[in-house]
């Protein structure tokens, strides 16, 4: 495995190399056409998880076919359980190198492949979910939610910025820190934000009230992995998700929506982190717990909202 980028013990996430954009009119060279693009994901990866949630919430399963890699990764990078029937690839690296033979970065999911040009369009996760709503609007199922409404974009971006830095990426900063200071800094910021979100959700069913937005899609994958992986493996253990009644109820409320629950695979999540990241878990032993009931009644109806976003 390529060494992780560290700066004085602080984990630094690499910048995305592929940043093409699919648009409804094809202006940038990539027109939205059903069946043309292939989405590559790992069910373990939180950044990929959100693309699966949005694809399902918007009813784009047929328009955007998906391929899932094996949850365990070695130094060769993500691998397919069987060669991918569309691209013929056995390793995700083949798609990156076919797109750019000089590529030297990590081979990451999620990424979107164009079957017409035989190249990767993008591996830029925030762009992928927004693009699904914008470029593929014409192919959404009737009644699909608008997750990124124009009037809320600024506020959603602001909250997403905080959640990305301190929560989504914050758990990685804590887990991959190789200095005490870097770890303390990350954990403090993480639990401060969780505390703020806990308060916010006392009077709002979702992060922006009664409607689901991109902000919920961004937060949920980290919550789904929190007690199972981040609490132990990444040392994010000041509190469990289950110790935050509003956040925990909110996470179960989302889990009850098929787009969230049916894309959440706890077994692959646990095996991926504990087996793949041997530098922080050398034995590769996967813990049995935690024993959480994600289907327990969440009682969030009392906070408001119809909860009527089920796809
Ligand atoms: N490119 C993503 C990050 C995606 C990412 O880091 N994915 C991880 C899995 S959770 C991955 O594919 N890692 C492969 C590797 O590090 O070799 C972003 O926009 O921040």
Automatic annotation (TrEMBL):
Signal peptide per UniProt: none
Recorded superkingdom: Bacteria
Cross-referenced InterPro entries: Glutathione-S-Trfase_C-like (IPR010987), Glutathione-S-Trfase_C_sf (IPR036282), Glutathione_S-Trfase (IPR040079), Glutathione_S-Trfase_N (IPR004045), GST_Omega-like_C (IPR047047), GST_Omega/GSH (IPR016639), Thioredoxin-like_sf (IPR036249)
SUPFAM superfamilies: GST C-terminal domain-like (SSF47616), Thioredoxin-like (SSF52833)
Keywords of this entry: Transferase
PROSITE patterns for this protein: GST_CTER
An example molecular function term from Gene Ontology annotations: glutathione transferase activity
Residue numbers spanned by region Disordered: 291-311
List of catalytic residues: 45 (nucleophile), 172 (proton donor/acceptor)
Annotated site (Lowers pKa of active site Cys): 230, 273
Ranges annotated as biased composition (Gly residues): 302-311
Keyword Nucleus: no
Residue ranges annotated for the GST C-terminal domain, each copy included: 149-273
Residues that hold glutathione according to the record: 78, 106-109
GO CC, any one term: cytoplasm
Cross-referenced CDD domains: GST_C_Omega_like (cd03190)
Protein name per UniProt: Putative glutathione S-transferase
Organism: Actinomadura namibiensis
